[in-house]
Specification:
about 15% strand; CBS-domain; 12 strands; elongated; alpha+beta; single chain
């Protein structure tokens, strides 16, 4: 009787040792799963910053992320070997103990082994999923950079130990992919849509203020906006004509609020240059009789197709923060300053001009009165429009240009078109230029009628 008790105690001790070994294998599997998620999901910029500060773990993590085939093959080898060992060990050790335990409960011999097998599979699967997969991966997602720095060096050492096996697996995979004629897609860096998504998430989580979000989005659009979207139009230019005489021009300059003034002779088609009001004041205090023409500086010209990003480069190289814009015929189309570019980034500055009107004005019925000179990117963002007709052709960059392209002629008042679920109606023209557009949700009947017109015009083209 004493011998039987001693034997049962020994079996129980061995059983718990076997359980501990299998649980250890499950935890080791969790380390591999956690390492994979941590290094794959880590932000490269954060790891680079830590590596620059001397963190060797971050440096190793960057090396592993740059060689995904080697790293992922190492992880897969480790997980596969652990799975094989856990299965084999469970069959050799746990099933025997479970079968003996089930027999002691009085179950028939023919049922004891199947029940023991099923119980082993269920128990090991449960603990493998919880402690070997789900919990480690959630931990890795919570702080991927920290965990990546911790596990990178052991994983790098392990990858060197199993390098021959990893080489075999990698080349076998490449061979099979070639046989399947599967081509590797070119890796694309962070695209603009992803950046906008990150900006939106940052604003929603409070990392970015609303003003910061808008400024970042506007900076990303500098390469999409043309100088024509922000310039002062030719008909609105404040300028002086040398033919009017210095006294008349000085009086005109004193009445204007500008630091730079275009100078012409006989009209804007004969531009002489640009006059700095600051230089004028300095010169007049030293020599009051100096003619204005002696202070005129050579103007800097840019074509109408210049983007704001290209314009910024021009300003960095030029001395003066103002340029004249030429149209396709070589005539002056307008003037743009550094302040105009800054307004495109941070928004409109407060002005003392009583005639100033915002680009978007919401009316009581919910419709919007929109400036025809608003750039397309701002229009799309404000009304959440994804795609516009012939947008990729580059034929237009403003709302007025969109209407001209869709109508295939110079718009006139009361012209209306449908863009997705929006109805755009021209309510004011300034000569041949669209000044104001009424934007509202389309009515069903109008939607059917107008969309047919637009589609037929696009088909004709």
């Amino acid at each position: 009787m004493e011998i039987c008790y001693h034997r049962r105690s020994k079996i129980t001790q061995v059983f718990f040792v076997d359980i501990a070994i299998i649980f250890g294998l499950i935890l080791l599997n969790g380390v591999f799963a956690m390492s994979e998620i941590a290094i794959v999901s880590s932000k490269r910029l954060r790891l680079q910053q830590a590596a620059d500060n001397g963190d060797q773990g971050a440096k190793k993590a960057l090396e592993l992320s740059e060689e995904p085939t080697r790293f992922l093959s190492t992880i897969q080898v480790g997980i596969t070997l652990i799975g094989i060992m856990a299965g084999a060990f469970g069959e050799a050790a746990i099933v025997q103990h479970l079968e003996a335990f089930i027999l002691d409960l009085g179950l028939k011999v023919e049922y004891a082994k199947p029940v023991a097998w099923t119980s082993m599979v269920v128990i090991i699967t449960y603990f493998s999923l919880i402690f070997g997969e789900l919990v480690p991966k959630r931990l890795a997602l919570m702080n991927p950079e920290l965990i990546a720095r911790i596990v990178s060096r052991p994983m790098d050492l392990l990858s060197k130990m199993v390098r021959p096996l990893v080489w075999l697996l990698s080349h076998s995979t490449e061979l099979i992919l070639k046989l399947l004629r599967a081509r590797r897609q070119e890796e694309v860096s962070l695209i603009e849509e992803e950046i906008h998504s990150l900006i939106k998430q940052g604003a929603e989580t409070g990392v970015l203020d609303l003003s910061e979000k808008n400024m970042v989005k506007n900076v990303l659009r500098l390469d999409d906006k043309r100088v024509g979207n922000v310039m002062t139009l030719r008909e609105d230019l404040f300028y002086i004509d040398l033919n009017d005489g210095d006294q008349a021009n000085l009086a005109k300059i004193n009445s204007g609020p500008y630091f730079w003034v275009p100078v012409c002779r006989g009209g804007l088609n004969q531009i002489v240059g640009m006059l700095s009001v600051k230089d004028l004041l300095s010169s007049r205090s030293a020599s009051p009789q100096a003619p204005l023409e002696s202070l005129v500086q050579s103007p800097l010209y840019v074509p109408l197709s210049t983007t704001l990003l290209e314009l910024l480069e021009q300003f960095k190289q030029a001395r003066d923060p103002v340029v004249l814009v030429r149209d396709h015929h070589g005539q002056v189309a307008g003037l743009v300053t550094m302040s105009d570019v800054m307004m495109a980034i941070v928004g409109d500055f407060p002005v003392a001009d009583d005639d100033y009107e915002p680009d978007f004005v919401q009316r009581q019925d919910g419709s919007w009165l929109v400036s025809g000179q608003i750039d397309i990117a701002t229009f799309k963002d404000h009304f959440a429009v994804r795609k516009l007709p012939e947008e990729s052709s580059g034929l237009y960059h403003t709302l007025g240009g969109l209407l001209l392209t869709v109508l295939d002629r110079v718009p006139k008042e009361a012209d209306a078109v449908l863009i997705q679920n929006l109805r755009l109606e021209v309510v004011d023209m300034d000569g041949a230029r669209v000044d104001k557009v009424l934007v509202c949700e389309a009515i069903a009947q109008e939607e059917s009628r107008t969309s047919t017109v637009i589609q037929s015009r696009e088909t004709d083209r």
